[in-house]
Amino acid sequence: MSRSIDTIVVAVDGGGTRCRIAVSGDALARQLEVGAANVSTDFDAACAELNRGIASLTEHCGLDAVQIARAPAYLGLAGVTGSAIADRLAASLPFDHVRIEDDRPAALRGALGSQDGFVAHCGTGSFLAAQLGDQRIFAGGWGPVLGDQASAQWVGRLALSRTLDCVDDLRPVSVMAEDLLSRFGDAAGVVKAASGMSPTDFGALAPVVTLHAGRGDELAVSIMEASTRYLAGQMEAMGWVPDQSICLTGGIGPHYAAYLPEVMQQDLTKPLGDPLDGAIALAHAFQEEIEHERC
Predict the structure, then answer these.
(1) How far apart are CA 234 and CA 103, in angstroms?
(2) Cα 295 to Cα 281: distance, rounded to the nearest angstrom
(3) How far are the Cα atoms of 38, 249, 287 from residue 14, in angstroms, in the given order?
(4) pLDDT digits (tens, 9 = 90+) for 69-106
(5) By the 8 A CB rule, do 258 and 248 touch?
(6) Which of 79, 123, 247, 283 is found 20 to 30 A from 67 (Cα to Cα)?
(7) Each residue of 38-68: pLDDT tens digit?
(8) What is the pLDDT of residue 295?
(9) Any idea of the CA torsion for 41, 254, 193, 191, to the nearest 10 degrees?
(10) Are 136 and 111 in contact (CB under 8 A)?
C-alpha cells in the first residue's frame, strides 16, 4: 500500500565522520547512517553517500521515488560554504523541495530547541553558535586549514606537534607523548603518518588526549586548556554573559567542561537533542513554509 506523503519530511545531518539520514512523519520515523558527507572535502563522494543512503532509506520505509521526491528535505552538512555549493548539491539529489545549509543550524536547534543559549560544538570540526530570541549567531566552522580550533582533529594534530616538541626537549617528558610515539614507532613515524592523515584520522587521536588529560598528564592538560581558552574567548566575543546556558556538543565537546572558567561551568546545560533532531525540526519548519506558500 502506498503511504501518504503529506506529513513526511527528510532530514540529514552530515559531517566529516558520518552522515545520518531520517524520514519523519506522523506515522513513520526511520533513520540510517552512512559514511562521511563533507561536500567541500570530497563533493562526489559526499553525493554518492547521500544518494545511497536516501535510496536505502526509501526502500526500507516502503516508499517510492515519487514519494521521496515530493517530501520536503532539509540537509545540514559539513562543508557547505555558500549558495553555490548548496545549489550544486541540490541538483544532484532527488528532491523537489530541498533546503541545504551548513551543519551549524541543525546542531544549534538540536541542542537548544527553541530556548536561548550558546552551543560549542566540537566533533571532527568545530564551531560556536548562539540562539537569542529570533537571532542566530555563528562563528567558526571554517574547516581544518583555516579554523576548527578545539575540534577533535585540531586536538589530535596539536598532540602530535607537541609530542615532537618533547622529542626536541622543548617540553617536559609526557606519558601521552610516549604513548603517541609508541603508536607510530618514533618521531620519523609520526611525521610520515601525519603527512597522509585526514581530519578524521587526526580526530581519532583525540581520545588519547582526553584519556591522558584525565590522568593528569601535563601535556594533555595543556591541550585541553588551550582548547577551552579558545571556546570561552569566542563565546564572550559573541556576547555570552553569566546566566546564559551553554551546551557542549560533539564527540570531544563535553570533555572540555572541567576546563572552562568556573563562571561558565555554572551555566552548563545538557543538550535537549542532537544535530539530527535539529535537522528533523528544521525539515518540519521548512514543510510548514511550503504549505503556507501554497495557501
Answers:
(1) 18
(2) 21
(3) 7, 15, 20
(4) 999 999 998 888 889 999 999 999 999 999 999 889 99
(5) no
(6) 79
(7) 888 788 888 988 999 999 988 888 888 888 8
(8) 66
(9) 110
(10) no
